[in-house]
């Protein structure tokens, strides 16, 4: 057997050094006061009994395993800490994005309400300028209608009025007695919207809108029915 130095195994391990020193001291017949570390440094595998050799190697391997485990634990801790920092940063960013989105929506809603209020105020002023006249042109009558209903319903309302009266608020059906923009039958039905139903297109429009909403849900609902039946 070749003489392999014990120092190459586990002199870094206190447990291994003590074991080697003790074994070598006993094997060589040295006094107990001899330094275990010094003895271990000078000893060789051949100087150690066969049974003790296994103990030395086991102690060395155990120390190596402990060192590797410590390194692995440190790496795992570092990785966990980095993952936690990353998760915290992502959570903070998500909360910031949500807060920014909520603020943007709130600001947009506020602007929309402000614009709608301004539009309603302007519409009331414009409508006031149109009303109270002795006669109305088609363009004026259509302008009144636009201001009295939602923008997405005007075209449907206009389609019906185009077919019923051609936007003539004094239109009369000689055979049936239907009257006005929406050809109410009889025309006197429109008195529920105002006593000036015969001469005021706004009153006729108001009545027509109420009728379409009550019976068909909206002017567009009424127009869908009209297209299928040629009446409403």
Short précis:
With 232 residues, this protein is mainly α.
Could you explain how this protein is built, in words?
- By secondary structure, the protein is mainly alpha-helical.
- Helices cover 69% and strands 0% of the residues.
- The protein has helices at 7-10, 14-28, 36-42, 50-130, 138-148, 151-164, 201-216, 219-229.
- It is rod-shaped.
- Structure class: mainly alpha
Q: Got a strand count?
A: 0
Describe the global form.
rod-shaped
Order of helices and strands: HHHHHHHH
Distance between the termini: 114 Å
Average of pLDDT: 80
Explain the layout of strands and helices.
Layout: H1 7-10, H2 14-28, H3 36-42, H4 50-130, H5 138-148, H6 151-164, H7 201-216, H8 219-229
Helix pairs in contact: 2-3, 2-4, 4-5, 5-7, 6-8, 7-8
What distinguishing features does this structure have?
single chain, about 230 residues
